[in-house]
Amino acid sequence: MCTTEEKIINASIVLFSQKGYTAVTTKEIAKEAGVSQMTLFRHFESKHNLFERSLDKFVFSPQFKALFESLEWDLERDLNKICSSYQDVLYKNRKIILMHLKNEELNPHFEAVLYKFPNEFKKLLNRYFEEMRNRGAIIENPETLAVNFLTTSFGLFFTSLVMNKLTFDTDIQTCISNYIKIFTKGISLL
């Protein structure tokens, strides 16, 4: 069962992602959450604070760090696992991503909160690729690989998000497997 704060945050995420920050009123959010406007302000004080808390919900998960600790050091299997998990995290947070896309006027603090996850993900990928280079599996620059892997993986997610399905007759897991196969073949020394 959701707390009152969770109901308000969930309602705000839905409305912010549909209309953007400026177009949504606290009255609409309160109605969507099934609470009074006074209750909304008691919990969040302002629409700005509510928006910030909604963005805070999109944070780097400790389970994702645990994923990197459980890797097998097999380039193709590990990257399949990483990309699939990344797709899951993005899909679960798609409303936050849509909310960001609807809000061009975000201040730098909101941007910092939103970019926390991809920045943490990039650091973990960089460390992974550094270790794979140390093990002699790759010779490429780890940071370049991390950025390329991250942007291509996000591109796959974004394509499916915007199109509401992939633009071709292939499921996402097949796309991930094919992408990883090509990526690993291109960077692998073995």
TrEMBL record:
Query: Pfam families given for it?
Result: TetR_N
A GO MF term: DNA binding
Query: What is the organism field in this record?
Result: Desulfosporosinus lacus DSM 15449
Q: Does the keyword Membrane apply?
A: no
Per its record, how is this protein called by name?
A: Transcriptional regulator, TetR family
Keyword terms: DNA-binding
PANTHER family per UniProt? ACREF/ENVCD OPERON REPRESSOR-RELATED (PTHR43479), ACREF_ENVCD OPERON REPRESSOR-RELATED (PTHR43479:SF11)
SUPFAM superfamilies of this UniProt entry? Homeodomain-like (SSF46689)
Q: Where are the transmembrane segments?
A: none
Span of domain HTH tetR-type: 2-62
Where the record puts its DNA-binding region(s)? 25-44
